[in-house]
Design goal:
two-stranded parallel ribbon; globular
Length: about 450
Amino acid sequence: MNPLFVGVLALVGWEVAVRRGIFGGLRLKLPAFGTAAVVSAAAVLVGAFAAQLALCDYQSAHDGIRPVWFAAAPLHFVDDAYPFGPAHAAFSFGALALAIVQTLALFVIAGGVANPASSGAARIVPFVAAFALGALALASPVVTSGDVFGYVGLGMLGAHPFARPEGFFHGQFAQVFTNYTIRPTVYGPVWIAVNAGVVALGTTFAGKIFALRLFGAILLVLLVVLARALGAGRAALCALALNPMLWFQFVANAHNDMPAIVLVVAALVAVERRLLWLAVIFVAAAGAVKVPFLVLGIVIFARHRDRRMGIVAAAASVALAVGVSAAYGGHAYLDGLLATGRGRVVWGPEVAVAKAAVALLALGATVAALVFRRFVGFAAWFYPGLAPLLFPWYLAWTIPYACAAGSGLLETLLVLPIAATMADTIYGLDLFGLAVAVAVVTFVVVDLRRRHFAPLTA
């Protein structure tokens, strides 16, 4: 089991115990930082993000030997499919150090804007910082995942991405796709249609990637607007708008999870506005972007005032998404999903059991919310386990559940930069990740013991 899930399991147990009143709780309290601290932190955050992009760009050319075809790629490329070099540990811990700096800066900014006594300048600074982060992400010379190349290829194939005609790609597109094989399509009809439209906006390979990046930036801004509509506080909104992990993974790398995340959060807003039919459509659309979002998306119906109607709406969303996806993709789509579900890595039986256990815990969190109206904040971190492999951008799947639970959004957002760095396969932090997980478990055990047994032995 990934060390991340070991720590999450311990935290979930701790949270359940706290809610039952067995132990005392622990709540994040933001210090009231002043304007000078906010301005300084914003400069540090933007600088650390620029340094992260520069480090990745340098790593792309200096961390192991890369094949000749990389020169034909529209952007510099860090790929874990090839052996890394002797400096890999230095790159890995350098990236982790920058993620820690980013998190601390984000914490200071969040505390500053949440301070009732903060000046107008302190509230303007986050807008400037967000613009700077966006500009850096849009102009990034490097990607750390080749997924965006695949999105371009699938978008060019248009409404029929399951067909791969010989000689379809020419020029630079052919140079890339001859070596970077487009994997079986595992995305639903909503994403296929939207992606094709966005990719068509660019004329060159780099232009098509820029269009996808710009689309990701627009979605991230929309997510902030939706979170504000849900009543998220200033601190959480800043942690969302200025989150370097989100800008890196969904703008610079242009991963395609953000449309589904936005749709689920929009569905939650619709439920709060008592527009249940609209929420059903949004959740179904999210599932027609990526199938796992059906499990995560139907959680929002637990916020409906009528439990039975919420369950009916959840079932309707699933039926609509499955029906539309089956009608569009048929066996080709199903075959792609099954191939991906089997994974690209052969796991031992113990790992397979652990992965199944995490997926069942995610399903259990959905059932607990829908049927029993029980949310456990840390359970949001089980949802990335629904994916066959854990990649850092999947950690953003925690956001919709945190929004639906109505608590833990700020803490979730603050953790994302460090957690994503430790989960990223372009770095070698496995042992460090295990140490962090052990530290989390130790903290929980010690905290429980101190709070439970201290009064008895006093």
